[in-house]
Amino acid sequence: HTVTVAGLLSGDDLKRGLQELPADPPRRVILSPRVFNADGLTLDGLTLEEVAAGQPHAVETGEEDGFIAFWSGLR
Asked: Under DSSP, is residue 62 helix (H, G, I), strand (E, B) or coil?
């Protein structure tokens, strides 16, 4: 139950995806907390700060319960 597709995203993939978003308007991007392992690293060893570096957007992780509730509500 702790291994999800989100945990298979690399930090470089996330950075590339964020860079493809238009810079204007700046967005608030909330990543699943499962993107990062228990040490706070992505699959390729990047931290949240490294993923967010140089982005015009605010990048943060959300609460686990909030993500579960959000996706459950889409049924």
From this structure: coil
Strand partners, 49: none
Distance in angstroms (rounded) separating the CA atoms of residues 27 and 3 = 28
Per-residue pLDDT tens over the stretch 6-21: 667 899 999 999 999 9
DSSP assignment of 34-52, as one string?
A: GGS-TTS--TTS--HHHHH
Q: Which H helix or E strand runs over 10?
A: none
pTM beyond cutoff 0.90: no
d(CA 48, CA 71): 22
- 1: burial class by Cβ within 10 Å (0-12, 13-18, 19+)? exposed
Alpha-carbon torsion angle 37, 63, 9, 18, nearest 10: -130
